[in-house]
Design goal:
The complex is a heterodimer of chains A (405) and B (101).
Chain A (H helix, E strand, L loop, with lengths): L5 E8 L5 E2 L3 E6 L5 H9 L6 E5 L7 H11 L4 E8 L7 H10 L4 E5 L6 H20 L4 E4 L4 E6 L10 H14 L3 E5 L8 H5 L5 H21 L6 H5 L5 H9 L7 E5 L9 E5 L16 H10 L4 E6 L12 E5 L2 H6 L6 E2 L10 H16 L5 H4 L25
Parallel strand pairs in A: 3-4, 3-5, 5-6, 8-9, 8-12, 9-11, 10-11, 12-13, 13-14
Antiparallel strand pairs in A: 1-2, 1-7
Chain B lengths: L3 E2 L7 E4 L8 E4 L2 E4 L9 E3 L8 E4 L2 E6 L8 E2 L4 E2 L5 E5 L3 E5 L1
Classes of the chains: A alpha/beta (405), B mainly beta (101).
Chain lengths: 405, 101
Amino acid sequence: MTHYPPLTNKAVLRSDGRKGIRNVVAVVYLVECAHHVAREVQSAFREQGVHLLGFSGCYPNEYSFRMLRSLCTHPNVGAVLLVSLGCEGFNRKGLLEAIHETGRPADLLVIQQTGGTRSTIQAGRNWVQNAIKELESAPLTSMSMNELVVGTVCGGSDGTSGITANPAIGRAFDRLVTEKASCIFEETGELIGCEQIMVSRAVTPELGEILNDSVAKAARYYSILGHGSFAPGNADGGLTTQEEKSMGAYSKSGSSAISGLIKPGDIPRMGGLYLLDVVPDGDVRFGFPNINDNAEIAELIACGSHVILFATGRGSVVGSAISPVIKVCANPETFRNLPEDMDVNAGRILEGLASLDEVGDEIHHLITRIADGHRTASESLGHQEFVLGYKSFEPIGPTCHPTYQ
Amino acid sequence: MQPAIRLSPTDNILVLARSLNAGEEVLIGGVVHAMNTPLGLGHKIAAHKIAAGEKILKYGAPIGSATAEIQPGEHVHLHNMKSDYLPTFTLDEGHEFHKHA
């Protein structure tokens, strides 16, 4: 039996064999009309690791169902309360069954069948109170690096992101991949211009073609929308073009071979580096692929990410429901401006005070502390942003994941 | 520390490692260039003369094309370069959305 480097002794084993580094109770609204009731239930337990997430739309959508199923059965989630209005299109019974199949405590409250707002909030709070008690006695187990999934995203990028935080995350990714962890990078729209370089890193030529196609799809999608993944703040921070932003973003992936392409909700079956294709398949529908950074974070978590490495230059303050977000600040001026919101000061690299390898090691070490229960800046500030929209995807084929047969 | 760094030997731009005031001098290729305007950390300046239409190289990779001739030490940004893929949008003083194509 191969021995992998240990990560933590405080993990929780789930019925599918995956392990969690948190034991969150999730309160989930299944339409915007149930959002208030769900938030009132959750807010009473904010300090006790109860998180709020959900889907606003009333129309059913395969992608959003798959996303919520993946999130409700994520290894960091211990129990789930679903809150439905009663007339929305979401397949609430299907979701409840999928969660029950994993053995997690789960329940469904339908507001129209529970006497309205006030009594549903009360019923929900009673249920969550009991769930918290039940989770307190969950046995803890050891978890190794090969059982860890790490996602990375960048937001509020500027001219420093691609020099400090992103390549430092790349160094951490390189080390994690050698330890057989699964590492996921994403936003094919932010890889426009990098496709040729990326193709040469694919483990098979067929996968290289798939990676190239995914970026071509993103370029086409954003061209039709008339707007790339580029915000005014990016330009204020010294970035001029989409492809310049892309080159900086791409360096988060490090230098390992790319083992596969996955789509939201696909879980890497073995350690390695994966590209998450976030741009919908088929005709352009439903608008921008991801309306903000948190939509990307939710997709990385739906792919099993236990922790998210978030590189920021301008200074994003967000966190997420379900998995901790580590803020790696690229810009030393931003770090001084927003110190409470940042976990790692990668801007030290620009000031000659640290090397890329040193910051990469610091990120790696921080992941082990977070897995042990240490809270990230955004966790301790109570950030739990969550957003989920409409999309449509074709399932991935075997050539997308050639190392696993 | 040198305030403008070259990320790759083939690059024709340098990236500012700290914010510079107007008039502040930077040594580029053995010649001193004074900044015309204040420039923020992370912005780019030309490492040498760049002709209109020439690719702008950063990290050793093309990140767009020059739309005008650019002098050594000059700020390289939306006014003198463009994307070869998608237009860039900016907010002018927070009021108007501007398309740079």
